[in-house]
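ARCHIVE CARD
CATEGORY: sequence design from structure
SOURCE FIELD: tokenized fold
FIELD CONTENT:
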């Protein structure tokens, strides 16, 4: 099925910017022209592509077609560079799934060293970022473990070390007699969101049981550190971020020398891998600077 590039760019702009008016401004046309392009595209595919609202959001079909449009943009930019031997092509857009902790620690450093690319980041728990790639909703993702998603190239990035940390006052109050099974079942903990199982995994490794302690849900990497330092609860914080707080006396390990190492992998759709090769190189370099070497 052939789809008009102008129609695809209109759809992509609406879903990225949230309104027909903003898309019209970006594409230098009238909102009426944008509406006509979307109607023609919906007639062409025989499905509704956008839920009109504030903001406008894509239907399942609309999101898939928008992803297709972004992928075409990446491939066209690569082809133009190869044919002209110039790097002055317009920026292509890449939608990437990245865990919040990776973004906070090293992924921005990877992005800044890639020219000619705009990023649309999907932030999700690291255990679930692979699902975005598996559903075809992103071009690449930082995932947990080494299992390769079908149709993707995978590159081991190393291990991100997590430490169970809390304020010294919290440890003295809740773990005065050690991080026993009873203490871990009662002490409030911090959880990034409902998908986050780092605390559960660490408890299972240290206590030998699956416990369900009272928990605060706090979906912010910086907020996680600040909440732990304030004495709100204990939680698994990435060592590169937690170490300065530990050295400053604001945090301490719940159990000394009891880390949880989480292996991360960079996975990219095989068709788009050549177009994303500069990003892949930058991602691997940035990760190597802060993560432990792969096992």
């Amino acid at each position: 099925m052939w789809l008009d590039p102008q129609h695809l760019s209109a759809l992509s702009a609406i879903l990225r910017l949230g309104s027909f008016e903003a898309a019209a401004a970006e594409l230098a046309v009238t909102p009426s022209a944008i509406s006509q392009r979307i109607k023609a595209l919906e007639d062409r595919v025989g499905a509704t592509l956008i839920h009109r609202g504030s903001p406008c959001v894509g239907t399942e079909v609309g999101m898939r077609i928008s992803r297709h449009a972004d992928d075409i943009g990446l491939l066209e930019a690569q082809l133009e560079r190869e044919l002209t031997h110039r790097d002055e092509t317009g920026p292509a857009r890449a939608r990437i799934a990245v865990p919040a902790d990776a973004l906070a620690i090293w992924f921005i450093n990877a992005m800044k060293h890639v020219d000619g690319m705009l990023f649309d980041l999907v932030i999700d728990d690291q255990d679930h970022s692979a699902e975005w790639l598996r559903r075809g909703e992103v071009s690449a993702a930082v995932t947990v473990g080494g299992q390769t998603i079908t149709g993707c190239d995978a590159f081991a990035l190393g291990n991100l070390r997590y430490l169970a940390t809390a304020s010294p006052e919290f440890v003295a109050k809740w773990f005065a007699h050690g991080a026993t099974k009873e203490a871990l079942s009662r002490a409030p903990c911090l959880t990034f969101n409902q998908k986050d199982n780092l605390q559960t995994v660490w408890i299972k490794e240290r206590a030998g049981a699956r416990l369900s302690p009272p928990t605060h849900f706090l979906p912010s990497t910086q907020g996680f550190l600040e909440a732990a330092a304030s004495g709100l609860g204990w939680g698994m914080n990435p060592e590169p971020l937690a170490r300065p707080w530990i050295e400053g006396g604001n945090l301490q390990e719940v159990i000394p020398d009891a880390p949880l190492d989480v292996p991360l992998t960079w996975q990219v759709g095989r068709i788009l891998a050549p177009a994303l090769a500069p990003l892949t190189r930058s991602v691997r370099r940035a990760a190597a600077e802060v993560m432990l070497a792969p096992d």
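CARD ANNOTATION: Residues 96 and 121 are 5 Å apart (CA to CA). The radius of gyration is 22 Å.
SHELF: design records, drawer C
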